[in-house]
Amino acid sequence: MKTLAVFGDSLTEGYGLKPSEALPAALERRLRAEGIEVKALNFGISGETSEDGLHRMNEVLKAKPDAVIVAFGANDFYVGDEPDFVRENIETLCNAFIRKGIPVLLGGIKAIPDVGAEYKAEFDKVFPELAEKLGIPLFPNVLAPYFGNPMLTLMDGLHPNEQGVERMAEAMLPHVRTLLKKA
Known about the structure:
48% helix
């Protein structure tokens, strides 16, 4: 059985949801339904930025995952962290796993328009450029499968509800299948 670490923020943790409704659990269910034996570990903590992830990186490495999804960024743009700072943090996180021979899927994110056009333009380049530089696969935008659809979000309009998480898992599944083949 392969182990998949899903490392990120509230979008990973399953903010406002039961653990069984969070993204790692949804991915595990879908993969197992296809006959892929996998245990998905939830390393998501609400409110965390990529910088916070640096402080927890060793915890994820100690779990010895066969593959990892790195999915930070929403809180980074929310608090206005400079795109170059976010890029450095995410690159450090990804390289920690790459150096250990652990395949990485980068969960990209695009800033919401509220942050301003100039900031958004700079932030939105971070993930595609990093994936290309590091030679790792990119899931372009973890928000895209649900964001902006009130039927798929919690009352806050930001976090996915159970159906929103299922949409995320469905969209991510082809990337995760490929990732696990590399593990």
